[in-house]
Design goal:
By secondary structure, the protein is of the alpha/beta class. It contains 13 helices and 14 strands. The chain folds into two domains: 241 residues, Type I PLP-dependent aspartate aminotransferase-like (Major domain) (Aspartate Aminotransferase, domain 2), CATH 3.40.640; 124 residues, Aspartate Aminotransferase, domain 1.
Length: 378
């Protein structure tokens, strides 16, 4: 009997690198340097080298990373920050939490990301920053977004929680990692991410040394020297055990991304040409690390498809079922009757299939068979 198919197989991934992980954790235990130990600095250095960025500042989680980034930019209450309406709540949540005004943008219906063309009409004299989200594992069109930001003198904070390891190619042929192109990049090391720890974790990336110093200070209670606090900050740290785990897994990140792409290729080949099913579109100027493999179907069919797959024991997720501006929490920022067409359409038609490094060919074949069976009978 085949084992149940998990949406994310953290246990299987751990078993393959168990010896290295266990040794790394035990080394931290032996030193008893659990907070800001040498493993945290080692991981920061290694991630800087991997990403090709000057500074990586680890923190407690991806939401903190976004909050600290906006705090470091010195924005004032009432300043407007543009973000996509089709993303996880944390992107807009931290904007509101700081007394800023989230301005929610539509997204490209095929790429799922915001674009410069969709951002530009939303810019006012109150706009101070843009938060592009590299959704599902591939980059926004950062060249156009950075050009727009330069023209209007706006900050750019990249939400790279789902795309660590993805690369963007500029028109001049230069290549940069997602999270390193804006003024600040942020990421999450939540366990299910492509680079995930075994608890909570996050980081900020920047090439600006002055910004890096401010970010470090804010994340450490606003202090550069112990007990001397220059600004109001917070307490947001990546602990040494999680850093040791991430340091181990970073060596395998490209291998994990290649495995996810191999799975995505197999899905594409199996589903291509099926009426009523739209494959994920891959941008020509961005690689894809497939944090999620997200397809589209007709809204009238989606619930039927989800029920069909679940009945077959196949996990399936909808990222995301409700536009952010329809969430009650954001009602103070949204005019009555506000609608964004692409986002509302996507929320009704997207679904994501399992895509992770430990899935076996037989399991993927079972998933493919179930999807094809459904569309054959509708």
């Amino acid at each position: 009997m085949m084992n149940a198919i998990p949406m994310v197989d953290l246990k299987g991934q751990y078993q393959k690198i168990k010896t290295e992980i266990d040794q790394a954790v035990l080394e931290v235990m032996a030193t008893a340097q659990f907070i800001n130990g040498p493993r945290v600095k080692e991981f920061s250095n290694n991630l800087e080298a991997y990403l090709g960025v000057n500074h990586v500042v680890p923190c407690a989680n991806g939401t903190d990373a976004l909050q600290i980034a906006l705090m470091a930019l010195g924005l004032k209450p009432g300043d407007e920050v543009i973000c996509p309406a089709f993303t996880y709540v944390a992107t807009a949540e931290v904007i509101a939490l700081l007394g800023l005004t989230p301005v929610m943008a539509d997204v490209d219906p095929d790429i799922f990301n915001i674009t410069a063309a969709l951002i530009k009409p939303l810019i006012t004299n109150k706009t101070k920053a843009i938060v592009p989200v590299h959704l599902y594992g591939q980059s926004c069109d950062m060249e156009a977004i950075m050009d727009l930001a330069t023209t209007y003198k706006l900050f750019v904070v990249e939400d790279n929680a789902q795309a660590t390891g993805a690369k963007y190619t500029f028109s001049d042929g230069s290549i940069k990692n997602t999270g390193t192109m804006g003024h600040i990049g942020t990421t999450s090391f939540f366990p299910s991410k492509n680079l995930g720890c075994y608890g909570d974790g996050g980081a900020l990336m920047t090439n600006d040394t002055a910004l890096a110093q401010k970010i470090k200070m804010i994340a450490n209670h606003g202090q550069e020297t112990k007990y001397y606090h220059k600004v109001i900050g917070c307490n947001s740290r990546l602990d040494s055990i999680q850093a040791a785990i991430l340091n181990t897994k970073l060596k395998y990140l490209d291998t994990y991304s290649a495995a996810r792409n191999q799975m995505a290729d197999a899905y594409d080949a199996a589903f291509r040409g099926i009426a009523g099913l739209t494959l994920p579109k891959r941008q020509v100027n961005s690689s894809h690390v497939f944090q999620q493999y997200t397809l589209k179907t007709e809204a009238r069919l989606r619930d039927q498809l989800l029920n069909h797959l679940k009945a077959k024991g196949i996990p399936v997720m909808v990222y995301y079922p409700v536009p952010l501006y329809q969430q009650e929490a954001f009602s103070p920022y949204i005019d009555k009757g506000f609608k964004i067409p692409n986002v509302e359409g996507l929320c009704k038609c997207v679904f994501s299939l399992p895509i992770h490094t430990e899935i076996g060919n037989s399991q993927q074949e079972l998933i493919i068979k179930a999807v094809r069976e459904f569309f054959k009978n509708v």
